[in-house]
């Protein structure tokens, strides 16, 4: 026997608003007196991109525009559409514009998935006004949309929905679910709040959890009484990974947050971001690369052991794999976070790079050049070289930098951690060299 489905359409479609008055969230972009709202109300659209995370309302805005504006509205997905379909739409839009003065509003979901050639196809049509292009993307358009097209479009940045906004959307979902089952639902507010927290700003995810919970409860109770419990929510959540894009902005945002938390000596935040990345199924080696980078860039000689701990964790990952290497990775994360910090080597690198770029071909002093041939020896190569080990204290006052840079000091150790010891050594060496040079003159 075939049972009629409880929901004829996904719950996210059933609660999707039809007007801007019903739209929830994104008040900075679509709220009262906003540019986007004025464009929609005045039916005076120009091309733009909606950039934001999944489930924040990009497609909903496009659907509202389709209902509240007069142009010919066409929706397509960059995942399923090819260049031929794009060109056909462009040609038809140009004819409508030229002969009937009618604009075509073209909405492209996941526009970042179009390659350069496909994006190029829009340029002339956007420029001459025959189409109004609306692109939706979860990727940073600075990197995923070609510059000529991006320069002709506004970018509206959408944010993950707030908890209160998700609660309002879930209340609408509860009303639609009640209609679907034909009776009141016992759905505690605390569980609604839990779903809003779990959803992470994604309305589609929140409504998907609600829909599955209602279906599961309805089937368990034979439709007699629909009671949503914490156990049902937990069953729905089994196997659901956190919302995370392993190749997009989220990937780099979380890696950046991990690195900056370690740099800021915030062990708790560093652990959180590391676990978030690992639990989301991302490549654990990407975490190790950031840890190793932090060991070199932000700790350096303030604690040389940090790099060894990081390298050991990477070797443990290669030997054990995941999830067995998780604690080894976290050990390196915490060590980095709590280690003394110094960017002295990074600063030295920047200063040296500047000098090399400014004066790229400075000659090496003759006395520290090698003289493998008689001609080079006659030219003065190696003349006056002082072999450090010939001295009781193996240090000389000999100049090693090129003449133009002879007074440069690149390495300036911090006065804490192991670099405090390095600073004392360096000061002693400089004093010895200075006394030697003074004694020679």
Key words describing this protein structure:
single chain, 441 residues, alpha/beta, 53% helix, elongated
Strand order in space, largest sheet: 2-3-4-1-5
- Report the span from N to C terminus: 106 Å
Rg estimate, integer Å: 32 Å
Overall pLDDT score: 89
Largest sheet: 5 strands, parallel
Derived structural class: alpha/beta
Beta strand %: 5-15%
Helix content: 40-55%
- Low-pLDDT stretches are none
Global shape: elongated
* Run of helices and strands: HHHEHEHEHHEHHEHHHHHHHHHHHH
Q: What assembly state would you assign to the polypeptide chains in this entry?
A: single chain
Number of helices: 21
- Compute the number of strand runs: 5
Account of the protein in words:
By secondary structure, the protein is α/β, with parallel strands linked by helices. It is about 55% helix and about 5% strand. The chain has 21 helices and 5 strands. A 5-stranded parallel beta sheet has the order 2-3-4-1-5, with helices on both faces. Strand 2 (about 70-75), helix 5 and strand 3 (about 105-110) form a beta-alpha-beta unit. Helix 16 (about 285-300) runs parallel beside helix 18 and helix 17 runs antiparallel to helix 18 (about 325-340). The radius of gyration is 32 Å and the shape is elongated. The mean pLDDT is about 90.
């Amino acid at each position: 026997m075939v049972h009629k489905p409880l929901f004829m359409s996904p719950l996210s479609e059933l609660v999707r608003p039809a007007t801007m008055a019903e739209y929830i969230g994104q008040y900075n972009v679509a709220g009262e007196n906003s540019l986007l709202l004025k464009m929609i109300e005045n039916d005076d659209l120009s091309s733009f991109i909606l950039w934001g995370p999944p489930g924040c309302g990009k497609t909903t805005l496009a659907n509202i525009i389709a209902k509240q504006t007069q142009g010919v509205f066409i929706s397509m997905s960059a995942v399923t559409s090819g260049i031929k379909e794009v060109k056909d739409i462009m040609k038809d839009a140009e004819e409508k514009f030229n002969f009937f003065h009618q604009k075509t509003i073209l909405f492209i979901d996941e526009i970042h998935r179009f390659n350069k050639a496909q994006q190029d196809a829009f340029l002339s049509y956007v420029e001459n006004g025959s189409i109004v292009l609306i692109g939706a993307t979860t990727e940073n358009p600075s990197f995923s949309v070609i510059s000529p097209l991006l320069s002709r479009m506004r970018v509206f940045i959408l944010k993950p929905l707030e908890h209160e906004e998700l609660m309002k959307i879930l209340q609408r979902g509860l009303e639609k679910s009640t209609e679907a089952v034909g009776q009141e639902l016992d759905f505690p507010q605390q569980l609604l709040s839990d779903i809003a927290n779990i959803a992470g700003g994604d309305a589609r995810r929140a409504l998907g959890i609600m829909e599955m919970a209602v279906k599961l409860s309805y089937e368990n109770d034979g439709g007699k009484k629909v009671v949503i419990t914490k156990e049902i929510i937990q069953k729905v959540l089994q196997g659901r990974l956190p919302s995370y894009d392993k190749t997009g902005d989220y990937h780099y945002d979380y890696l950046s947050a991990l690195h900056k938390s370690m740099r800021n000596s915030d062990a708790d935040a560093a652990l959180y971001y590391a676990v978030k990345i690992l639990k989301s199924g991302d490549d654990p080696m990407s975490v190790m690369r950031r840890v190793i980078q932090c060991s070199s860039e932000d700790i350096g000689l303030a604690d040389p052991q940090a790099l060894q701990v990081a390298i050991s964790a990477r070797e443990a990952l290669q030997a054990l794999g995941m999830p067995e290497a998780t604690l080894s990775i976290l050990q390196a994360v915490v060590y980095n976070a709590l280690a003394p910090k110094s960017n002295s080597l990074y600063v030295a690198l920047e200063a040296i790079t500047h000098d090399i770029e400014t004066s790229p071909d400075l000659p090496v002093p003759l006395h520290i050049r090698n003289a493998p041939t008689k001609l080079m020896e006659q030219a003065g190569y190696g003349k006056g070289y002082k072999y450090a080990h010939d001295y009781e204290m193996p240090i000389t006052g000999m100049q090693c930098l090129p003449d133009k840079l002879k007074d440069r000091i690149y390495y300036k150790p911090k006065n804490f951690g192991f670099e405090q010891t390095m600073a004392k050594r360096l000061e002693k060496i400089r004093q010895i060299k200075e006394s030697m040079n003074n004694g020679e003159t």
